[in-house]
Write a structure and sequence with these properties.
- It is a single chain.
- Strands 1-2-3 form a three-stranded mixed β-sheet.
- Helices cover 59% and strands 17% of the residues.
- It has 98 residues and is an alpha+beta fold.
- A hairpin with a 2-residue loop joins strand 1 and strand 2.
- The chain is built from six helices and three strands.
Length: 98
């Protein structure tokens, strides 16, 4: 017979399934992006980032510095790659810089 402990799911897998079931995984991803933003883009860009939102695989960013905003708009494909690479999965498919 099988051991009952083999069927016990880990806490991580239970939380992951709960996030998916209640559609909380997107909000959890947004929180992780906000938490790790400085590590992803560096301290200067993080300091001028005013807003970070993730809605339906689109990352919405706002900056308080117009030249930086323009540069981030031009480099949004690279920024998208850095965000997804940091988490090791596709967190966002598009970036909107506003």
């Amino acid at each position: 017979m099988s051991n009952p402990k083999d069927k016990d799911p880990s806490i991580a897998s239970v939380l992951k399934n709960m996030y998916k079931r209640y559609r909380m995984d997107v909000k959890a991803s947004e929180i992780n992006i906000k938490k790790d933003w400085e590590a992803i883009v560096g301290p200067v860009i993080a300091k001028h980032t005013v807003q970070i939102e993730l809605k339906s695989k689109t990352l919405y960013l706002k900056f308080d510095n117009p030249p930086l905003k323009n540069e981030m708009f031009l480099q949004r494909d690279l920024l998208l790659a850095k965000v997804n690479e940091h988490f090791g999965l596709v967190v966002a498919e598009k970036i909107f810089v506003g």
